[in-house]
Structures are given as C-alpha cells and as structure tokens.
Amino acid sequence: MTALAARTLADIGADNPRNHIAIVRMPPKASGPSMATILVSRSPFSARDLAELEAVTDRMKFVPTLNLKFAENEIFEQLAVPANHAFILPTLPINPAPPTDDNPFFFHILRFRQLFRVTAARYRGSRCRRTEIAQSGGTAPVGGGCRTKNDGCVA
C-alpha cells in the first residue's frame, strides 16, 4: 500500500510523496502480526499534523512506522519514493508494486519464483515440523506443525 500511495501521489503531482504519507501500527502481539493504518494527504503533512499524529500515536500506544521524520526500516523509506521503485521492488521477496493495466491485481504479491518455495514449505509444515524444530534445539524456522498427537511429533 505504501508503494501504491507514493505512485498515486506522484501521478497527481506531489513533489515528494513521502511528505504526504504517514503509517502507524498496533504493537505486535504474540498471536501474530499487527495491523497498520496508512494516512495519505493531498498536501504535505505539516509540523502541526505530525505533532498531533505523534500525540495520538503515543496515547493509543501505536508504533510509528513511517512519516516525514522517521522510517521504521529502509524498505518503507524506499517504497515511499516512486523514483526508488525500479531499484527496490525487484529485490523484495514479495511484489508490492502498485497495480497497473499490466499488473492489475495488487493482492497477488507472491512472485512466481517464490511460489514453489511457499508450496514446499507448506508441504513440509504439514509433515510434522515440531520434530524438526525440537531436533534443531528450537532454531528451525516455525511453520506448519502437527495437527494431532498421532502425527509422530516430538512435543
């Protein structure tokens, strides 16, 4: 969504799309990823806008992810600048490219080269990953797992 917002802002004439984008997210929970909110403005966010956003972010205990003064990581920083898309998008394991006539489905973010890796990981995951994780001393990547105690898993 960051790349889509940046591309849209550039298309309507924004000189620096990053100045028009702010992203905050809920803190991560043990049960999974957190939800994020992206704010996009036709005009650049002012210092007053950012101060208010920071106050609300602190009060709601959200985590700032991207604004004109801060980027949680370099990927968000790069995605907020359309001129960087040609460089950064091909390096990512997923395809967050904005939709176009040639690429109309923004929700198809898996790259073809990743398709078989994901399929293989799911297959391995369904064959009792707990044994592999236990045998690795807990260092094996977690994914899938046993469905019942009869799967021959190491608990």
Which labels suit this protein?
alpha+beta; 2 domains; 4 strands
Q: Indicate the low-confidence ranges by residue numbers.
A: 125-155
Rg calculated over all Cα atoms: 20 Å
Order of helices and strands: HEEHEEHHHH
How many domains make up the coordinates?
2
Query: Cα distance, first to last residue?
Result: 40 Å
Strand content: 5-15%
Helix content: 25-40%
Tell me the structural class.
alpha+beta
Q: Can you give a write-up of this model?
A:
The chain is of the alpha+beta class and 155 residues long. Helix content is 35%, strand content 11%. It has two domains: 2-91, no CATH class; 112-151, no CATH class. The protein is built from six helices and four strands; from the N terminus they run αββαββαααα. A four-stranded antiparallel sheet has the order 2-1-3-4, with helices on both faces. The chain starts with a helix and ends in a 20-residue tail after the last helix. 15% of the residues are buried. The model is unreliable at 125-155 (pLDDT under 50).
